[in-house]
């Protein structure tokens, strides 16, 4: 049972139903379209003895609160309350739980049978798509106190778009590599840019290289096992990609300097690319300078604790 209490939204399914309905309304869909889609997307829950009633209760309650309760949803929820099947699993938890749940459903029934409030206005998402092209390189000069403390003041971090990712609720943000200059001079050609040092942004343990692939799916494991995984001298799989959280044009620093588009740059050596973009390190622009300096000093300069006392590490074959 994915529930941690008797209240209506102390349940994973109920929260998913509520959040999904609101999310789709923000995307401009009508309640009729959304309800039809949710019948399909939540079929696994609707057909379940325990989760089915929860689905209908949460759907009816959320629609009522938004002034959009559909007659068929109302009828289904009220029928399930009257039937009483939902109380059975709570009786198994103990008399107190059953009494508390019965009170919750009684209040829900009273609500659904009362006039619903006027239809509430739901604002539409304003989704942003970063206009950068794959291969575009931008420079950001370091000028913070942290940069000064680390002896990096005046140097540049250069980011190059290599991919894109959909950031909730639908923003298209860039995935980039980051490099750092040796001094305060910017590269003037693709060749000069290619020679600059990549900034390592994260790492994965060798034994976790298949995650987040389902370990029970042997076909996925077998397919990913064909890839070449190269560890560093400490036995880790180094990562170099970053998701730059760009939800509007105004959050991207105006100080960025466009360097050019260099499509044929040598990728980082021994790079491990996470099998899911969900696992790529994500950074907000307001934290960009601090986070990248921390990554550079921690991973490139080997100050992170993972590199301490690793002289006896057994590297994977």
Summarize the structure.
The chain has 317 residues and is of the alpha+beta class.
Number of domains: 2
From the alpha-carbon coordinates, what is the Rg to the nearest angstrom?
A: 26 Å
Average pLDDT number: 92
Assign a percent range to the helix content. 25-40%
* Class from helix and strand fractions: alpha+beta
The number of E-state strands comes to 9
Sheet with the most strands, sense and barrel status:
7 strands, mixed
The end-to-end span amounts to: 43 Å
Q: What is the tally of helical segments?
A: 11
H-E string: HHHHHHHEHEEHEEHEEEEH
The coarse overall form would be elongated
* Proportion in β-strands: 15-25%
* Uncertain stretches: none
Would you mind describing this structure in some detail?
This protein is an alpha+beta fold and 317 residues long. The chain has two domains: 12-112, no CATH class; 136-307, no CATH class. It is 36% helix and 16% strand. The chain contains eleven helices and nine strands. It has helices spanning 12-26, 31-41, 43-46, 51-65, 71-83, 85-93, 95-112, 145-149, 190-194, 218-224, 288-300, and strands at 136-141, 156-167, 171-180, 197-198, 202-205, 236-239, 241-245, 257-261, 281-284. Strands 1, 2, 3, 4, 7, 8 and 9 form a seven-stranded mixed β-sheet that branches. It is elongated and about 75 Å long. The mean pLDDT is 92.
């Amino acid at each position: 049972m994915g529930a941690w209490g008797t209240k209506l939204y102390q349940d994973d399914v109920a929260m998913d139903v509520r959040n999904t309905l609101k999310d789709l309304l923000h995307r401009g869909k009508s309640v009729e379209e959304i309800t039809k889609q949710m019948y399909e997307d939540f079929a696994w829950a609707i057909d379940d003895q325990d989760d089915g009633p929860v689905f209908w209760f949460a759907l009816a309650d959320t629609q009522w609160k938004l002034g959009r309760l559909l007659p068929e949803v109302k009828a289904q929820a009220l029928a399930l309350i009257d039937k009483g099947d939902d109380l059975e699993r709570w009786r198994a938890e103990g008399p107190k739980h059953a009494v508390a749940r019965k009170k919750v459903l009684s209040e829900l029934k009273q609500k659904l049978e009362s006039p619903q409030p006027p239809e509430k206005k739901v604002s539409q998402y304003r989704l942003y798509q970063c206009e950068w092209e794959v291969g575009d390189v931008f420079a950001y000069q370091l000028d913070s106190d942290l940069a000064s403390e680390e002896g990096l003041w005046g140097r540049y971090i250069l980011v190059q778009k290599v991919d894109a990712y959909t950031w909730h609720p639908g923003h298209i943000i860039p995935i980039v590599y980051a490099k750092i200059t040796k001094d305060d001079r910017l590269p003037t050609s693709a060749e000069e840019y290619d020679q600059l040092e990549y900034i390592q942004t994260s790492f994965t343990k060798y034994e976790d290289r298949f995650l987040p692939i389902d370990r029970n799916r042997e076909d996925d494991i077998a397919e990913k096992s064909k890839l070449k995984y190269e560890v560093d001298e400490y036995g880790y799989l180094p990562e170099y990609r970053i998701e730059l959280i760009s939800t509007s044009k105004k959050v991207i620093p105006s100080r960025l300097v466009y360097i050019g588009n260099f499509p044929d740059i040598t990728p980082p050596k021994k790079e491990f690319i996470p099998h899911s973009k969900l696992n790529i390190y994500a950074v907000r622009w307001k934290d960009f300078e601090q986070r990248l300096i921390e990554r550079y000093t921690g991973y490139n300069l080997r100050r992170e604790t993972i590199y301490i006392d690793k002289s006896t590490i057994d590297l994977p074959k």
